[in-house]
Amino acid sequence: ATIHDQTLLRGEGGELHQIAEGDVPVLTTAQGGPVADDQNTLRVGPRGPLVVDDFHFREKVFHFDHERIPERVVHARGYGAHGFFETYESLAAYTKADIFQRPGEKTPTFVRFSTVAGNKGSADLARDVRGFAVKFYTRQGNWDLVGNNIPVFFIQDAIKFPDLIHAAKQDPDRDFPQAQTAHDTFWDFISLTPESMNMVMWIMSDRTIPRSFRFMEGFGVHTFRLVNDKGESTFVKFHWKPKLGLQSVAWNEAVKINGADPDFHRRDLWHAIQGGDFPEWELQVQLFDQEFADRFDFDVLDPTKIIPEEILPPKPIGRLVLDRMPDNFFAETEQVAFMTQNVPPGIDFSNDPLLQGRNFSYLDTQLKRLGSPNFTHLPINAPKCPFAHFQQDGHMAMHNPVGRVNYEPNSFGEGPRESPTRGFRPFAAEEHGIKARLRPESFADHYSQARQFYISQTPPEQRHIAAALTFELSKVETPAIRERTVAHLLNIDETLATTVGQKLGFKAMPKPADAAVPTRQDLEPSPAL
Ligand code: HEM
């Protein structure tokens, strides 16, 4: 029997019952108890009160009541797919990471694309940054490259992240607006945060509204390190380049698509993969050393800066193919837990203060969201290589240490042991300096790269940036915020600033933002004293 042609019985109240027969399984409770009637609660008399010993109803509604988990505090709306990464050539000269040793080696991956500011039910084509998070299930444990579709970021220090996100998401009193609408709080924060100017140029550009996830670039953003088996380190920036090329939609198209189909991007990915049209990206790296880094006026540890690709052309090192949709959205896409601190031996961090702050944040957020320190026991988060440790118990423990011994060292010869040769050893960077809340002078130029990005755009693209800024700032109600923002634009491009100022109806242009405001050192005694 199939579900469609099975026996139907009519109950006393006229309700229909589908009956298990043939190979149709019997409905059970979560405890495995067979269920006789799933249409009616247990009650006293047909029109009487319900009784509390209806364990089937109690369990069913209890479970339903707990179906939702907190949405991600950022990147709440996302869509994921499975695939594989294939290494082109051995990178043994640069890294001992197993994933990069053998040409043709395939590593399973899971990718989640997302928008940052919108809630889980928001629309796909918002003017917003897109997340591009990749989990590689390598033979040395999971490596998470948790990037975005824009190569720079708004802030230089992770301590500003809660402020940035509070300013960008709904205001606490009115609980609007969503990501796609401009508003005072976001532009207030931006206008008081000149380091955001490079990113602002990118998010006001056409880059920000991809035609689909399949036409989107991805970036690891930060400078990372590759470390080889001799312990030598090379700095690296990671880039994903879509094989289909980079394509966006214009703002007026985005607004229409959002209205007609807020699920446009997820629908596109679903149909492409289900139809066998597998999207592909090339992983490219910019490799450099300290001597190369020292040639720039900006700092390679500053996440608001790129290393121009014409100065350091990226080298293709492998490809990512997405070829399978999750069987279940919640189990996989919703429960996947990305963490920047997941790196295998041979890949390491730089001192980028945003990256280091992220390494601290993601573990906390996963515990909050998934509710148990055992979130690595979920199949989507579990490593696909052998693993062995002494962690035990906690909510929903699926595997505990086997045998008597759950500690080391032990003299019973049981359990795993550390490996000085195969284990992760952090790059032995030499560090010194005073302990204080500091920001380096090399992070101080906030306008040069914003200007370079703007002038690299074609005239129609520049017009779109001016139109986006005008539209956004026209929704800002506080005149001082508009003026402060245009004062920054004057330091980026005068024509851009004047166009926006005129369209906003400014009677006079503000003075350019002072790039040399008094420093804290002018006001405070040096922490060294
Ligand atoms: C989530 C990227 C900065 C905290 C995410 C996700 C991406 C991402 C792609 C979504 C992961 C997924 O699809 O599940 C980035 C990039 C950053 C950045 C590229 C800067 C370059 C930060 C900073 C913090 C932070 C500075 C905190 C100090 C979080 C949190 C989540 C998140 C709490 C939610 C994770 C979850 O609940 O699964 N980020 N992020 N991010 N990020 Fe970031």
Automatic annotation (TrEMBL):
UniProt keyword annotations, A-Z: Heme, Hydrogen peroxide, Iron, Metal-binding, Oxidoreductase, Peroxidase
Keyword check for Transport: no
GO terms for biological process, alphabetical: hydrogen peroxide catabolic process; response to oxidative stress
E.C. number(s) listed in UniProt: 1.11.1.6
Binding-site list for heme: 72, 112, 161, 358, 362, 369
Active site: 75, 148
GO cellular component: cytosol
Cofactor(s) the protein needs: heme
Reaction(s) the record says it catalyses: 2 H2O2 = O2 + 2 H2O
Domain of life: Bacteria
GO MF terms held by the record: catalase activity; heme binding; metal ion binding
Boundaries of every Catalase core domain copy: 28-416
Family: Belongs to the catalase family. HPII subfamily.
Function summary: Decomposes hydrogen peroxide into water and oxygen; serves to protect cells from the toxic effects of hydrogen peroxide.
Name the UniProt record assigns to this protein: Catalase
Lineage, broadest ranks: Bacteria, Pseudomonadati, Pseudomonadota, Alphaproteobacteria, Hyphomicrobiales
Gene name as annotated: katE
